[in-house]
Structure formats: C-alpha cells, structure tokens
Write a structure and sequence with these properties.
The chain is about 45% helix and about 10% strand. By secondary structure, the protein is an alpha+beta fold. A 3-stranded antiparallel beta sheet has the order 1-2-3. Helix 3 packs antiparallel against helix 4 and helix 4 crosses helix 5. The longest helix has 26 residues. The radius of gyration is 34 Å and the shape is elongated.
Length: about 300
C-alpha cells in the first residue's frame, strides 16, 4: 500500500481511495475504502508521521521474483537487521497465524485454521459480489484482466444465488407496466396453444419462437429450426431420390444455378438424417417411478 487519496463525487461526497501499486498485471489499482478501513490506515500513517515525520521510504524483497523493489513508502514496515524494510509476506503469514491462535481461545471454530494473505482477496471478492456489486466491477478492483479469474475467487452459495435471483425478478417486475403481468384472456391462451399446432409440419416440428412466422419460406430441409421426426426418415430417403433425379436433369441441361441449389439442399438433408439416426441409436434408460423416502429418525 503506497497512497491514500480522496475523490469528491459530483454530489459533494468525499470518498477515500486506497492506491496499490505495483499490483496485478503491474497496473495501479484503486480501491474505495469503507470508514473502518480508512480509520485503520489513518492510524498507521499517523504512527509513521509521529515517529519519522512522514511515511519512510524503504525497499522490500520479493521472495517469488527474488529481487529487491525500488524504494517506496510502504505502509507496513518493520526492522530487519537494523534496517527498515517493507514487511515480507512470511511476516504477514506469521501475524495472521498468531491472530487466529488468539481468536481460537474465545472462538473454537477457528482452531487449526490457517489463513494466507491471499485468502483475504477471496473474502473481499466474495463479500462484494454477494452484496450486489457487479462482478466486472469486482474484477477491476481486484486487478483481474479476465472476469473468469474473478469468478474463481468468488464463493457464491446456493441460497445467495436464489435470493439474488428473486430480488432481480422483483426489481424487474416493479419497473415493468402492471398490465404486462395480467392474466391472459381466453383468446390469447387459445392463440398460444394453436401456435404449437401450427409448428407441426410434414417432416417433424418447427422450433420457431411463439408469435413468429416462418422466416425461411417453408424451405424446411435447409432450416435449422426443423426437428425431424424419426418416423419420417423413409420420407427423407424419397426426397433424396427426387433431388438426385433433379440434379441429373440439371447436369444434362447445364442448369448451374439449379445444380448449386440442389447440392446445398442435399447437404442439409443428409446432415439432418444423420443427426436423427444418431439420436435413434441412443438407448433409453428406465429410471422407474420415484418412491418417497421414509422420514429420517433422530439418532
């Protein structure tokens, strides 16, 4: 930690910012500080100023890179061999372990638990996201270039997912016109049911969304929305024979545009037939009927 800055919002509110550099990806990282953290950092700075007049500049050894840093005003410093240096990560490990041991005296659940400094980044990320902060904002605060890295940091619990999802639905519904959530009329319900009847076609069923017409002018063989009924595989063979006869005539007459269109249709037809045949070969497994479990008895 090297700097504490202030940012004044347009409404006049002053936000304390903690600047960490160098940080993830060698980029400066700025973290808004709550009042509790600002109080702790202010106490550390005050202690340095009372003893030295300012935050002393010192070097720090990186155990991973095995190099010394440039002289910087580290907030966490200690004396090593009579020389003031930036606190090493192993020292932070020991201080955290000592704090856990002391905490275990009054909170037994902390017994034998060991925290690494990096664990606090994960706790920080989880606390932010579970309290509603968008995960891409959390990624920026943590210095992650890829949001997938942040997802790996965050421990999201099932009850939090369900709770946040219901809160999202409630907020969304509150912002929508109330008439959109009225009960459907008999005519609307009938139209909805008829939509699925209209999707039934010769070769199977069409997967187009509700309320939308056919967008491919009923060129069903080429349409990705078409789901072939396995019973209609013989019909596909008949269509293929007809297409091959048309291609033979087109080749004899040198109808190049017709030949290209027939070839394309044949490719789609064979692809759909292969896919449907493959689905037919999948063996079904009889899972049987579910049975209610007997009630658990207390031991």
């Amino acid at each position: 930690m090297h700097s504490v800055r202030q940012y004044q919002r347009p409404n006049g509110e002053v936000v304390a910012l903690l600047v960490v550099t160098p940080s993830k990806s060698d980029r400066e990282r700025i973290i808004p500080m709550p009042a509790e953290l600002f109080h702790v950092v202010a106490q550390i700075i005050r202690r340095h100023r009372n003893e030295h007049g300012t935050v002393p500049v010192c070097v720090r050894y990186d155990n991973h890179e095995r190099t010394w840093s440039e002289p910087l005003p580290y907030l966490f410093q200690n004396f090593h061999g009579g020389t003031q240096r930036g606190m090493a990560s192993i020292t932070v490990w020991r201080l955290i372990g000592r704090a856990c041991d002391e905490l275990a005296l009054t909170h037994p659940q902390f017994k034998d638990i060991r925290f690494a400094p990096h664990d606090f980044r994960r706790l920080f990320a989880t606390e932010l996201v579970n309290n509603g902060l968008p995960i891409h904002i959390g990624a920026a605060l943590l210095g992650h270039l890829d949001i997938r890295t942040t997802r790996g940091y965050v421990a999201v619990f099932n009850e939090d997912v369900i709770s946040n999802y219901h809160q999202f639905l409630a907020r969304r519904r509150a912002e929508r016109p109330k008439e959109e959530y009225r009960d459907p009329t008999p005519e609307e319900w009938t139209d909805f049911q008829e939509h699925f009847d209209k999707r039934r076609i010769e070769l199977g069923s069409c997967g187009r969304p509700y309320g939308t017409p056919c967008a491919h002018e009923h060129a069903c063989i080429r349409c990705p929305m078409l789901s072939i009924n396995p019973k209609m595989l013989p019909r596909l063979n008949e269509i293929e024979e007809d297409l091959l006869a048309r291609r033979k005539r087109a080749l004899a007459e040198n109808w190049q545009g017709e030949i290209e269109g027939i070839e394309l249709t044949l490719n789609f037809l064979r692809s759909k037939r292969e896919q449907t045949s493959r689905f037919q070969q999948v063996e079904t497994v009889d899972l049987g009927l579910p049975h209610p479990r007997p009630p658990l008895t207390e031991q």
